[in-house]
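Quiz preparation item.
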């Protein structure tokens, strides 16, 4: 007759064996020929199809998807890359939106910055116009001196000829500069218009300005009632 100590030891060994058997995984699948295969490790014949990893009790521990070919893996990696780039762009867009809303918390602030930017360009244009008038006055003096050589311009002093050429060049530079500033005004207005489209939605989400609020290129606020606060 076995002693209690021996029985306890046998039960302990049996429990360990059962635990080990329960912990051991069994892999099962149906291969391309329709055969059901089981093994104690992932089945090579089923790398192109789903396998089941079973626990010792027979219940499914997990599903193992088919292994990808090199081409499929490259396609999946490209898909993952594009998805990551899309997420990064979305995060960057949100960051820019937050920065834009922080910079322009209301239509009035956006309107004022547009007006300031345009006013700075106008000041530059005024300075250029003033310089053009100065050049015109200088040209009058040169023309008076040049009247003596109208019949034979080649006899005019080289210094006078050089001054006339420099005056013409300076006038051309000023005209080109004014045209460039006019283009800059258009770019500034376009930038503020594009920002305004984005900001109108952000202001609504933030509980600020109405969605139909807009600012004209001259800096006037539209879409609000007369006398209403922006």
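Solution:
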């Amino acid at each position: 007759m076995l002693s209690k100590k021996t029985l306890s030891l046998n039960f302990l060994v049996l429990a360990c064996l059962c635990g080990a058997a329960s912990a051991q995984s069994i892999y099962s699948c149906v291969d391309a020929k329709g055969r059901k295969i089981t093994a104690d490790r992932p089945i090579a014949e089923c790398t192109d199809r789903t396998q089941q990893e079973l626990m010792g009790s027979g219940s499914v521990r997990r599903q193992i998807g088919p292994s990808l070919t090199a081409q499929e893996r490259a396609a999946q990696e490209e898909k993952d890359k594009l998805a990551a780039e899309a997420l990064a762009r979305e995060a960057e867009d949100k960051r820019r939106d937050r920065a834009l809303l922080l910079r322009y918390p209301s239509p009035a602030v956006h309107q004022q910055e547009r007006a300031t930017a345009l006013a700075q360009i106008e000041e530059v244009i005024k300075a250029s116009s003033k310089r053009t008038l100065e050049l015109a006055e200088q040209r009058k003096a040169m023309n008076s001196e040049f009247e003596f050589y109208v019949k034979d311009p080649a006899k005019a002093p080289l210094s006078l000829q050089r001054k006339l050429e420099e005056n013409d060049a300076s006038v051309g530079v000023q005209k080109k500069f004014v045209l460039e500033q006019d283009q800059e005004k258009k770019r500034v207005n376009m930038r503020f218009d594009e920002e305004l489209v984005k900001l109108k939605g952000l202001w609504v989400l933030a509980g600020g300005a109405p969605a139909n609020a807009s600012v004209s290129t001259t800096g006037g606020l539209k879409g609000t009632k007369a006398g209403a606060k922006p």
